Amino acid sequence: MLAWVIDDQREIREGVACLIERGMAGAQTTRPFAQGRDALQAVARGEPFDVALVDLGLPDITGADLIRHLRAQRLDAAIIAFTIRFDDEAVFSALRAGASGYITKDAPDQCILDAVRSAASGAAPFSPDIGRRVAASFWSSQHQRGRIESDPTDVLTSRERQVLDLICTGASYREIGVTLGITLGTVQTHVKNVYGKLGVGTKVDAMRCTLGASSGAR
């Protein structure tokens, strides 16, 4: 797995790059970038990446614009907003631009590693407080429109529904495994099955299915 760390603070980008390489077998940070435009030039040259952690406070380009440009070049890559900001404008601007997840810089090292690992496997990692905020936003939107829908999660097994409920709280794969007493590999299998049955590809879309069902059950 090839990871990019894009952050204008040297201590952070080098520290996170070192964390990823030491904490994840087979992971490599091909290079850290201090500016967004350097990353854009690299992707334009065809340099590959699987996961990119993008600071939203870069000096030369907004984080949302950088995410949008990277997403346009690499539809299959995981792009995680990695920032000290947790206000609604920052969160939803990043998600609209194409971010796969959103992790705050004060997250513990293990949470950062879990986020990179889960993003690389196709999931959408969120810091717990950010995940709850995204879920609340979808619930509010559904409620205001007064939508009444059948429950799309009826196709899930009870265990898959437990996993989905924990995903919607912002829990990492590791936390889900500890809570349910199952291995990380089993968690990943359940998540893959959940996404397949719901016909979604991201955590946000899975949340939308759950919240749409909740509003329909009012």
What spatial order of strands do you see in the largest sheet? 2-1-3-4-5
CATH hierarchy: architecture of the largest domain: 3-Layer(aba) Sandwich
Mean pLDDT metric: 82
State the major sheet.
Answer: 5 strands, parallel
Please report the number of helical segments.
Answer: 10
Structural class: alpha/beta
Share of β-strand residues:
5-15%
Assigned CATH superfamily of the largest domain:
Response regulator
Poorly predicted runs are 213-218
SSE pattern, N- to C-terminal: EHEHEHEHEHHHHHH
- The domain count comes to 2
Give the key terms.
218 residues, alpha/beta, Rossmann fold, five-stranded parallel β-sheet, 10 helices, 5 strands, globular
